[in-house]
Amino acid sequence: MTVPMRDIEERLQGPEQTVHGGNIWDIADENTVRKGGLIDFSSNINPLGPSEKVYEAVRESLWKIRFYPQIDSKNLRIKIAERHEGLTYSNVIVGNGSCELIHLFTQTFVKSNTLTLIPIPTFSEYYYATCKVGGAVKEVEPKGDLTFDVDKIIGNIRENSIIFLCNPNNPTGTLLDRKSITYIVEYASRRDSLVFVDEGFIDFTRDPERTTLSSNVSKYWNLFVLRSLTKSHGLAGLRIGYGIASEEIIEAMHRLKVPWNVNCLAQAAAEAAIDDDEFLDRTRKAILNERIWMISRLRSIPKLKVYDSEANFILIDMKTSSLTSREVSNRALENGLMIRDCSSFRGLDEYHIRVAVRKREENTRLIRFFESLLGNA
Fold first, then answer.
1. Is 152 helix (H, G, I), strand (E, B) or coil?
2. How buried is 343 (Cβ within 10 angstroms: 0-12 exposed, 13-18 middle, 19+ buried)?
3. Which terminus of the chain is more solvent-facing, meaning fewer CB atoms within 10 Å of its CB: N or C?
4. CA proximity to 127, closest of 14, 282, 288
């Protein structure tokens, strides 16, 4: 029997697989990575790594490997619900990383030619996941400072449409206030439209409790809020994220969810991470201090346009230097640094890069790289 490659190729017609940062294993071997021979500024992960409580929980759960994990991560869902006032585990769905839930959401609610609004530039998986199921993407152009244009978003909402919002937005780091997002959600509700709010980086903002919409899902039937433990708790290798919404939305997604999608070690790590408030507070303070320092230092370097950020990464425009993002990325790699070439983001050009906020020593290396690079540009 031959593999029907022609049939497979026909099914794959559409956008190519998206590009992401964090592809460190394609560039360096394990020994180099483990010894810190390559510093990854391309992935927006907690530079402190997981907390000791997470490591302890994983070690204590190794005996579970011989068994199937809970098919629907019920214990973890209960713990998550306890952290969000007014919710029960029926309002929570857990995924093998946030990315799985983005695709599951589109598989559940985006039909052929469903209008899907995606303000750009933003995380590319919304576009890819929508196209994969035949949705009709309408990209909403930003304001001149790359912030979302709320009036344009509202003006494009139609009956039974889907709106994706990343807040804080990746890769710009910009943050929409709760009032603006609530306005979008309420307007969409009157048009029987769903709003998907990705809060994967909300833990890095100055005051997450005043910004998050997680407490509003019981009020708005059409709101889905995505949260990630990958970024704030450093669990990238375990892949764990969750979504909260009305029971109806969660039930519909559970019907299409792959069984046993989250392994037992990831569930144990997530439960421990959620309970470790001290670690999260320490992380938030460290990121805030380093972000302020990095933005100030980067702005002191000529030929860099540095955007404000409310996340654990910073967007930079290199156009004045005449160096493309690919050229800068390659030069950085020669110096043991990985940075994100943002030319693959829809709505950005070949001069934009993104750098993660890491520890002071690492951030200092990055600053010195730019000083050296642009001193010779």
1. helix
2. middle
3. N
4. 14
